[in-house]
Amino acid sequence: MNENQKPELLAPAGSPDALDAAISAGADAVYFGADEYSARAGARNFSCGELERAVARLHAHGVRAHVTLNVQLYDRELAHALELARRIYESGADAAIVSDIGLARLMREYFPSLELHASTQASGHSVRDAEYFASLGFSRMVCARELSEDDIKTLAARSPIGVEMFIHGAICVSVSGQCLYSSVVGGRSGNRGECAQPCRLPYMCANRYPLSPKDMCLAGLVTRVLSLGVDSLKIEGRMKSPDYVYGVTSLYRRLIDEGRDASADEISSLSKLFSRSGFTDAYFKGSVRTSPDSMIGVRTDEDKEKTRSSSVEIPPLAKVPLDSLTARFRDDSPSALTLSACGRSVTVSMSAAETTVSPLPSDRVREQLCRLGATDYEITPNTNVDISVPDGGVRMRVSELNELRRRAVDALTGVRVCERYADVPVRDTIPHTDVTLTAEFLSPEQITARAKSFFSHIYLPLDRFTCGADGIVLPPVVRDRDADAVRRLAADAYERGAVRALVNSAGQVPLIPDSVTADASYRFNVCNTESAFAAHEACGGTVTLSPELTSAQMRDIAKHVSAGIIVYGRLPLMTTERCIIRAAAGKCLGKCKNGGECSFTLVDRRGVRFPMRSIPGCGTVIYNSVPVYMADKKSSLYAIGASSQHFMFTTESAGEVDEIIECWQRGLPPREGTDIKRIK
To answer: Using one digit for the tens of pLDDT, what is the confidence trace for 162-180?
Structure first.
């Protein structure tokens, strides 16, 4: 972005009324979802007819339209999602916000002129991630909320595509795009827009709400935000009311235009609209690791009363005056109509269907062309209306004049016609190969002699790699500032025998030596064949499928791609930047400060226990209360056709590891009374 250019202010709309509020508040662009495949399934959203009208209204007021298609898709949904993408394209929308890399590949092929923005659910944290998104045809990435000011500044300076950042609204406690809690525990997938928000529930620990973060507010830091060089500033809130959308957007509009930070009174006004015990800027300031508990917030009765008592007056949305309407009718050539508004001018032409109809006089022609009542435009005394009609009148039907006017209005608002469209490609089925058994461990002490002989490949965390393993697991997130250190550790592991690496994003592949095979971890969220192909092309090794899939859905993908499935282990439900262990325990346990590992158990209100482990940088991984267990269901696993069956050992002792291997070899059911999770 040009350093003298103000960034785009991007406002949310979960309903037509909220969309009007965003326009009235001065948004440069508005993002909203159709009534399917949107990451805010609980919002009112827009039907296809409403979507087209919304885009037309935004364009009439000179506002860009960004439409969300940002959920992970199953194979059987791809064709329907692609049809929705066609409607988004033909509506004239300026951009589509997408998280599924398979869908993005298809959209780039069929609708190359439609901008693609990589959703925050795509888990973009670094310049390398931006480079990968660019290779897929994305023109912008929505960077993860948990990035700091320095992270964003580096990204904006070096990214090959535009950068969009959140400045206000709700934030996830988990790393963007890497939360399985709602899906695995409650059956409602956050990756598919159905999050049940278990992070907002109370837990039986020192702080009853250890997972619930306050909303982000960077209003007091606008001048620092403007200096970063990002392309777009995004307000969260598609589930919020029109009052919220107008109040928040209008305040940020003033701050950006005036190039200043918000006053204490202005921030107070934002908190009245909506807050959870105040706001946080800890991610942006990078203080999440030094004062993690300051981010915790809940929606109190006092907060709710403030919102109820606050009043926001949303001005009615006025129609847009046409600057000019020019029409030229000739007996021997097609008729032409030119409309101009908001600095745009379009001309459309058409020929009459017949020449035998009775001619329409000039006053009737003018009346029909100026009928703009159902549109967002209007004729005013300042509109230059210039209509040239032959002496004998215009030999066109009234319906043809109406069609000419409709085409001109559609052209002015950017409606397109799709010229190239095809179905989802049919992929060849690959021959079935022998199944490889692989495992990852949290520590070398868990790796037994039996494990070494049983598994074809054994992975350890990058910072704990040692002999006995031949694979490394890269950190869940690698920021630009950490890239060199990770690259050095990966090179050292290769020198000591590492031949494979579990990577968590395509942007991590350049960090490992060329001779090391990159396998895509479950964090890629691969839910369909197209995404699996994209992940395989980016990595080259096995693609671990999302644990959210059923066995039938896994089988659909495994026919075509070298796929891995998780057959044993506690699934990581959340990976957090903030130290959840400290909040739950009520104090810093301190072991991680000396290179050790802190552990604690999170207990929910039903008494269910979730193990937690610290990761470098004072982050936390929260694991499921029960492991996936399929030792007695191996026939159903082999029917899936996956090339790799993967074990995840987390809390198990060395003895328990050998016990699991024994059960697997003998096909034994779990111990009586043991709770487990199955692949359905």
So the answer is: 999 999 999 999 999 999 9
